[in-house]
């Protein structure tokens, strides 16, 4: 399997005096040689039988292990004696996290410890400007694709209970001041009813929702492919 050096952490190392290009995997706990790289070694070291099972990341099926051997692996500056598991096929070879750091191929720049993790209070103090007021996306116009073939629907108003009307007026006034909603003057072809519900953990406050189900029938959906975890990890490497 051929990998792109610009997208993967590939390094040149020697095993049994033979130069091989292997990927350093910070998430691997063992060293792996695929059958293709193992056959490049001359002479090929004898394989010892092993009962160890090798699993790829986030899979339940083990790789077919042909055996294991111990050999000297060397980078440009350091050499170490390490154990390698040989797997059938051409799936690629890996150097474990420990071997990669011992060979000075990977380096921990700043490990995260409990002392390095800031508390919520520290974050809110350091970034006070981000934790004040209402979080709102500014200076950006959202574009909705409307199906002009869907006729507008003016739905009837839903009666608001008397005991929450005052809270509703206060909430609408506050939302208008914050720029969450805008007052519309004159006729409008679309009318969607609001639904008012008291906030259980905030006495005297109400949650205002809009029933947009009929209006949403006129909105044309944009389709986007959601990448899988494996694809995201592959792009990060």
UniProtKB/TrEMBL annotation:
<protein>
    <submittedName>
        <fullName>Uncharacterized protein</fullName>
    </submittedName>
</protein>
<dbReference type="InterPro" id="IPR021109">
    <property type="entry name" value="Peptidase_aspartic_dom_sf"/>
</dbReference>
<dbReference type="InterPro" id="IPR050951">
    <property type="entry name" value="Retrovirus_Pol_polyprotein"/>
</dbReference>
<dbReference type="InterPro" id="IPR043502">
    <property type="entry name" value="DNA/RNA_pol_sf"/>
</dbReference>
